[in-house]
Amino acid sequence: MDRTRFSLGENDAPTTWYNLAADLPGAPPAPALNPKTHQPLTRAEMAHTMPEPLIEQELSTEREIEIPDAVRELYALWRPSPLFRARRLERALGTPARIYYKYEGGAPTGSHKPNTAIPQAYYNKLAGKTGLVTETGAGQWGSATALAASFFGMTAKVYMVKVSFEQKPYRRALMETYGARCTPSPSTETEVGRKILADDPDCPGSLGIATSEALEAFAQDPDLGYVLGSAANHVLLHQTVIGQEAIRQMELAEDYPDIVVGCSGGGSNLAGLSFPFLGERLRGGRDVRVIAVEPAACPTLTQGTIAYDYADTGRLGPLFRMHTLGHGFVPPAVHAGGLRAHGIGPLVSRCVEDGLMEARAVPQTDCFEAGVRFARTEGIVPAPESTHAIRVAVDEALRCREEGTAKTILFGLSGHGHFDLAAYDRYFAGTLADDRPDEALLADAADGIPLVGRG
Amino acid sequence: MDRTRFSLGENDAPTTWYNLAADLPGAPPAPALNPKTHQPLTRAEMAHTMPEPLIEQELSTEREIEIPDAVRELYALWRPSPLFRARRLERALGTPARIYYKYEGGAPTGSHKPNTAIPQAYYNKLAGKTGLVTETGAGQWGSATALAASFFGMTAKVYMVKVSFEQKPYRRALMETYGARCTPSPSTETEVGRKILADDPDCPGSLGIATSEALEAFAQDPDLGYVLGSAANHVLLHQTVIGQEAIRQMELAEDYPDIVVGCSGGGSNLAGLSFPFLGERLRGGRDVRVIAVEPAACPTLTQGTIAYDYADTGRLGPLFRMHTLGHGFVPPAVHAGGLRAHGIGPLVSRCVEDGLMEARAVPQTDCFEAGVRFARTEGIVPAPESTHAIRVAVDEALRCREEGTAKTILFGLSGHGHFDLAAYDRYFAGTLADDRPDEALLADAADGIPLVGRG
């Protein structure tokens, strides 16, 4: 019988998170900047928004950071997550390549997001917070926050982009089932929201606006902790359980990836899978190609500028040095809502800048084509975000067929698509558009990137 | 760190299915009857609808039946499934009881149904069939059939009860993503469907009607295999991987259940978990109470008659000796669509008749209350069907608290509720009804039970 699953027992779960900053050659990662002074954020300033242990993790250059027992106990609900060899997909492609995937859809909310929601909730609880507040686009992050809050007996308040709130009632219902309160953004609950609604009562919302509302709500209630779903160093750090497990599972498979592929929005899923492999490479291990895959509709890594920019539209939060399309950029409404990010986590950006990672942009219909092929051979219906990684894994496997090379390809299957079947419906109906951003809009947004520290 | 997950590696997966018929004391299970002659179905008659290996399994009294390698390889996609100790729920209940649950929601379609869809597809493929046809109510079974067909390169045709087809577009989209064709029933594709639509163009459909349409389509195309989702001996057999794994996992936990709880419709999930434990008991092992939990809206085990009756409304299929409310009974539209069955698998019925199992009926709002409590402590949002098992597990744990006894309770969490969040929405809105069947309707339906072999 061909072996297809490589499982780790709960005793083989990682006990530490892996911090890539410890192994990065060259200058230390660029610091975040205060949005008012444009000077590096101090610890004291960071303490306004984050509990001490998370600040420590955000700034740390230690290689290994211990995962608290309470977090590991909750991880055990779905971790270690399985790693599979996609033998049926390989056969269908007629490729000599060996394709593996690491599957995060077994988490209670169906994606990798709880890997960081749980520790963020934990540290906020330790710091005396009784509730969490955050923003969400398509709802993956909001669901994970709602779940994590319920585990620690905390309240959760989620500002959800209004158009998604209306299009995805199941995501809202999932958050409410966990006891969270979910509000369509822009709302009348905040100054920011009221101002926007006064200008445009039909405003469909955006992640930038929702972030501003969450930050405003956070600022007004000292009992609330603000948590975030991607991009920040500590968020990427928490996700490295994925790649650490994958390294051990590839050992069980007696194989090692030549290529690691991950979909890329804010970068946390990609970093979670790839950073531990990059760490091995940087410490003298095997060479591994890492490919970040983004939607053609939001080509942050392939067409963005490397510069200091805001993560939020409202310019309330700090500036980060990263690939950015400009904080004013609003990408076309592709179904991979989790990848519609104008900027990317600074550590991922740095990896691309330093040539440790490649980036590729793919149109969504090509991704759905690969996603359907995957569902029909491997059995799991992937989230639209994850289909981006599948598309490139398939393309690389087809290249192996052409070249007659038997490479080992590992990709991240970041979540299942059970909440996204309306998108598959549209794909089959032929009504999915392959919108690319208008060149003039891209240029406008790039013009909005501040001049701070451009080099 | 408290251990909460008890995992088996892929090498610890069962290699055989367990057949309770080998250990049942007393007379052999009552045979199915030909719907026309009312004589026991012959093998030759069964061969019209089932490939030889499935007939063999349907009639076998061997204790262990080998699982083909091709099936085990596909099971490995989510099996062995995890068994958890619900420590957070225990703490929330303040009970001295130890509560465990076996989780089947990690399957690609989110429930236990693929455990039998895959072997049924496999044997039909071996028999030269190129496609599968079946009926589905809420869509769990149709999804599993679509998945299994895609694994073996077969077509799949699913007649889905029209009201569910319209209420649950995501379930239909899931089937189509796997390449299946899904038709709302009654349809104009069959004689049966056309006749019903002529009488009542707005007919919302029923599982009985959908079954008749699937059987008609099957009869007209020799390339199609007909597959079924519950009740039959071979279906229950395939599900016993659940309980066999659970026995080994309880060993890992160094514990053994005093009580095993499962939700009960056609009986396959309940049997899959409990039969291996009952087998141990019957072979001189430890005493274990098994509780079958059904919806108060469809009290087959608690208010049904033990008699020979049809499984389908159209009386096209055989008669089975079972607890039945009458084949004409249409239960109120509770959200646990998978439990709306007028009859139950003959082997489960026999277990209740012989006192090997107890049965309990619970109203749906009580079940959702328990389901929400479970989601907020354990993190997994359960399918409405599964909340029935949770309700009784919680009730038994609360009884332990009252009595100061530390019993071990194991229940089956047959699926996740990601496709059922509209039902949770209605629960929170307070618009869920606790419909019970009208006494006059129950009496009418009972009158329709044929007089064949009533004892």
Automatic annotation (TrEMBL), chains A, B:
Gene3D superfamilies: 3.40.50.1100. The modification N6-(pyridoxal phosphate)lysine is found at K113. InterPro entries: Trp_synth_b-like (IPR006316), Trp_synth_beta/beta-like (IPR023026), TrpB-like_PALP (IPR001926), TrpB-like_PALP_sf (IPR036052). Keywords: Amino-acid biosynthesis, Aromatic amino acid biosynthesis, Lyase, Pyridoxal phosphate, Tryptophan biosynthesis. SUPFAM superfamilies: Tryptophan synthase beta subunit-like PLP-dependent enzymes. It comes from the Bacteria. It catalyses: (1S,2R)-1-C-(indol-3-yl)glycerol 3-phosphate + L-serine = D-glyceraldehyde 3-phosphate + L-tryptophan + H2O. It is an enzyme of class 4 (lyase). Tetramer of two alpha and two beta chains. This is Tryptophan synthase beta chain. It comes from Streptomyces graminearus.
